[in-house]
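Hi R.,

Here's the chain you asked about this morning:
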Amino acid sequence: MNTLQAGARLDRLAVSPFHRRILWLIGAGMFLDSFDIYLAGGVLAALGKSGWSSMQSNAAFLSATFLGMLIGAVAAGVLGDAKGRKYAYQFNLLLFGVASLAGAAAPDMTWLIVCRFFMGVGLGAEIVIGYGSIGEFIPPAVRGRWSSYLSLITNSALLVSAVLGYLLIPSVGWRAMFVIVGCGALCVWVLRRKMPESPRWLESKGRYAEADAVLAGIEAESQGGPRGGLQDRAPDPTQGRLQGNLQGTLQDGSWHSLFMPPFRSRLLVAVIVQIAINIMIYGFIVWVPTFLVKQGLGVASSLGYTALMSLGGPVGAFIGVLIADRVGRRKGLMAIAVIASAVGWFYAHSTSVEMATVLGFVLFTLTYLMVALGVATYIPELFPTANRMRANGAASAAGRVAGIFAPQAAVLLFAAGGIQQVLAVIIAALLLMAIVLALFGTETNQRSLEAISQLSPELARAGTGPNAPNTTAATAHSTTAHPPTTHPH
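And here is the predicted structure, written out as tokens:
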């Protein structure tokens, strides 16, 4: 009988240099992934202005991205659960790195769209595996904070991409953007070859000796560091008290298990959260430069205003770092969705570029706060190790479906009624997300991943009962995590 208890051993460890190294190894790939996604706004605005492309071709470019990301998300879910987190990491990183370099050499828009599809496959996989894996290494008391650190690293690429686009695209050309991300991805691929596999995943596959060896190394590094040692966190009272069908469901890494109680309602929540956030990002955020050009600004000016708004990306993720372990994920996401809906209405009725820039900054901030709490932290927590990546991939794939149609819908809505029509649809999606979270959401804050998997729907929504978080221990040790300051390499 297995007595390894990888989750319990990882959850007792204080944050150490090992955790910071894992954060940077995952974060480097995620940063480039995000950079590659968000360079689209500036590149497409320049291509449209020069006549190299049209609004319809630009929409096809975005749709090809999301079609690839849809396939990549599903494939990553299957590979991540079947072959391991590390295997899936390396495959997708190599794919989008090579495809980015091929896109830089594109002789026409058709070639670029085809290359973008293959970039999308790698990009979709990276998001699923990166956000799905970080929490498997981090103790519950600070898991939200560290997942938000990853979101901060990832979404800082929004600002970097906008600034570099502003500086390079008008002077050097759009091809330089793809060269930067392609070369960077290949460098990170080499660095990540020594990244360890998740002990939780190894244990779920019965590879106990390998899991124990990885755990022993993590424990030795954690206990030997300046903040080393074990946390005094009491074990979850739900550990080891599974019964009947739920026990089988937790051990079943199949698609079928995702549609059994209690995970089918969680899958619904994850899907709606992903769809709403993707509609916000790909129906509005990536179109901001193009919308501004269509409203009479030059390419350089539109990219400049977008760069200012893009400061909201890292700001939103940093706010996530501050509040992720202090407020419930469910209630936090509900509140942010309602606030973003109100700000979106005011943005749609703004009367000057300056007012739109301020409100745009707030919208960017709220959007990436939702990403930090929802996509980076909440969704991966909802499912057990055996099908965490598969569930995360399924939810992400649903978001990518929304991403495929959002660019086309944005073109039609903008033509029919301007930015007001675009934002009306986005506001409706955000309000739907808040309602679904209120009805079916599960609270995950401060709970071990194993305990979350065992929660009944009633206790999951209430956040009370025998599965409630160990808030005393969590508070006592919340100071063990500090923002990473240096890259280990």
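One quick note: The chain has 21 helices and no strands.

Cheers,
M.
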